[in-house]
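Quarterly update from the structural biology core.
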Amino acid sequence: MKSTVHEPVTTFNASLQAALDTESAYRLLPAGTWLEGGCALLAVALQKWVGGRLVTVGRETCEGVVDHVVLQVDLQGGPCFMDYDGVQTRQALEDKVCKEWRFEAVSWGDFDAAMLEQAGVPVSALQSQALSAELLGSGIFNL
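Predicted structure, tokenized:
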């Protein structure tokens, strides 16, 4: 018998990507894509609706470099992480980051907006509010 435990997460992940892959959502990006330049904006917007804690995932050997910002939430008794790809485990996120960016290992840290501003990727309150409204309007939080 097929397990249905992960079906709500799979549905949410697909709905999140569909909501983010719209012209109106892409207009809110400061630069790049949701995985390259828009990850912090997305994490801040998601946090408004689901709570959680903003964390960074990046190169283990480069202090102060913000490679990726994700939202950490507790689901089914353990931490999960949200980004453009949706909800995923710590191991799945680490595997993805290592594979896509060719890192051998990753480091984790607390989110610091000042680090993004220094890197030239500011996240404005207006942008995050607009994206939050866009996501709410898409119905993904009604699943």
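The first strand starts at residue 53 and ends at 59.
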